[in-house]
Amino acid sequence: MRDITDEEYASNALEKYSIENLKKIFVQIDIVNSKDCKEKDIQIPDLFVIDRYDKIRSIKGSGSDSNNLYKENNAQAVKYVIFDSTGLSINDIKKIYKDEIISVKIITKKGKEIMLTYNVGEMLKDETSR
């Protein structure tokens, strides 16, 4: 989790919010050497779960993925959410995301299956300065 930049603040017309309270959770998963995969799947959970806590807090969010099997050497999935953190501590935010799981499934050309999972709440780091 990090503060939003001045550029993000200005370009998203967020003036009705205090920049000090706007935070961004950003998740990016990369698979390298993915041409050697027979199958690959990256699942990032819904980061808008922040809205289920006490009120609608999300302001903007998006996601994308690049997974051109056999064509590109890397695969990537990205999601982010910008939200109003007023009244929330980092521990509150970690609790909100404690049940959100990122899963990565890879099957190599030799048939070996690799399944990795990551807990968003446990991995969430406070990289804010405001």
Overall shape: it is: elongated
Tell me about the largest β-sheet.
4 strands, antiparallel
Instruction: Determine the fraction of residues in helical runs and give it as a percent range.
Output: 10-25%
- Say how many strands there are: 7
Distance N terminus to C terminus?
12 Å
Give the percentage of residues in beta strands.
35-45%
Radius of gyration: 17 Å
Q: Averaging pLDDT over every residue, what do you get?
A: 91
Can you tell me about this structure?
There is one protein chain. This protein is mainly beta. The chain has one domain (2-123). 13% of the residues lie in helices and 41% in strands. The chain has helices at 6-11, 90-96, 120-123, and strands at residues 2-3, 22-31, 37-43, 58-66, 75-84, 101-108, 113-119. Strand 4 (58-66) and strand 5 form a beta hairpin. The mean pLDDT is 91.
